[in-house]
Amino acid sequence: MKNTVVIGAQFGDEGKAKITDLLASKADFITRFQGGSNAGHTVVANGKKYAFHLIPSGILYENKICMIGAGCVIKPDDLYNEIQGIISQGVSEEHFKKYLKISPLATLTMKYHIDIDGYSESALGSNKIGTTKKGIGPTYTDKYNRCALRVEDLFNDETLSKKIDIILPKKNKELEFVYNLKPYTKEEILAECTEYKKILAPYVDFNWQENLWNYKNNKSILFEGAQGVMLDVDYGTYPYVTSSSPTSGGAAVGASMGALTIERAIGVFKAYMTRVGEGAFVTELDNETGEKLRSIGGEFGVTTGRARRCGWFDAISAKYAVLVGGLSEVALTKLDVLDSFEEIKVAIAYKNKKTGEIVKNYPTNVFTHADFEPIYETHQGWLKDISKCKTYEELPQNAKKYLARLEELLGIKITIISVGPDREQTIFVEED
Ligand code: GDP
Ligand code: IMO
Ligand code: MG
Predict the structure, then answer these.
(1) How far is CA 426 from the centre of its chain?
(2) What share of the chain has pLDDT > 70, as a percent?
């Protein structure tokens, strides 16, 4: 398989993990390149359902190295709990020791990052972002402010002590005087680091440079994204976004192998749209139709359990995601969820309610989104169970028409169609 990146192309939860897990069967090396345990990734394999947060979705296979890359943020105790959860479902500890690798350059989420995330959200009140409270924003803030600890720091007592001496006085001032939160002693931070070192030690790949040369030169690589383009810190619905870059460009940075290693970029779209947390969502359906999508689609968050907001497919933001996400093809998921809808709508433009202006380019200032209403085109539903369709030809005519129209609107091919959560419920339109 060509080196492939799989990213979410909407607001996250598009079913990326299912697609990553499937494509992982054809890859040698799978690497997550951004985000942390804010992600909630569901893989259904051999009748069992697994929930991943930070562990790459290829981990269920034998003989595939799965790496948590340099662009990720790690809260080691969350990772520990995630590993234990999967072990309790029958995957051995040895399997993780053999196949799970962590980049020494990944950034650590400390307890104080969680404290700050919680504080920031409550201080914002009704303007909150609706974060997962996993400390993601505060950790990336420290990374870019050049005062974060990285995984490798845990393994050098002398430099760790020096770094804490540099970081902690500043961090404590921030905790006390900006956030009115409890400061930490050096002993507390060292104790936290000792615990984290113990958790991460079996997985940290100190030989990563040589290994990546080998993968880059000889192996097939799958880059796994979390979140989605519309949650990207530069291109998403800022400030209602996450703090990393879930685009194919983000993969070039966060996986330590550069842009030219990537040969194919698959954007995963749901056949409709969902969003958790706050922020603009022009095609949101706050009505019975939205409720129907939620209940048939099982639209509840894997990480926080929150009900996902639901709406129709928005071709304006989707076309934008093709551009800024750097996509070369589409995987369309959850088409089966639309089986019982008589009519299916797609937003093909926005109308400015104040000025009457019709907008076809995605308006990036989301504070203006309340001014826009979607202009829909309506497609006739197929009113058939498609969850057992194995080929494109078997799909009902109206489903084919819907797919063809989405391809036309997005300007790239739909090469994978998902008609259910299981691996088998997948149609590969164009095999690699
Ligand atoms: P991710 O974060 O993008 O990996 O997606 P999530 O795992 O958060 O949410 C996707 C949900 O949809 C999971 O419960 C999947 O098992 C499920 N799913 C994935 N593809 C399909 C599909 O084609 N049809 C249906 N009905 N469910 C799907
Ligand atoms: P996966 O990988 C859906 C959302 C949060 C919030 C915003 C910022 O499963 O698609 P953060 O905790 O990252 O600072 O929260 O981003 N968010 C997600 N929404 N799926 C995710 O991941 C998400 N990760 C973060 O709900 O709106
Ligand atoms: Mg998810």
Answers:
(1) 20
(2) 99
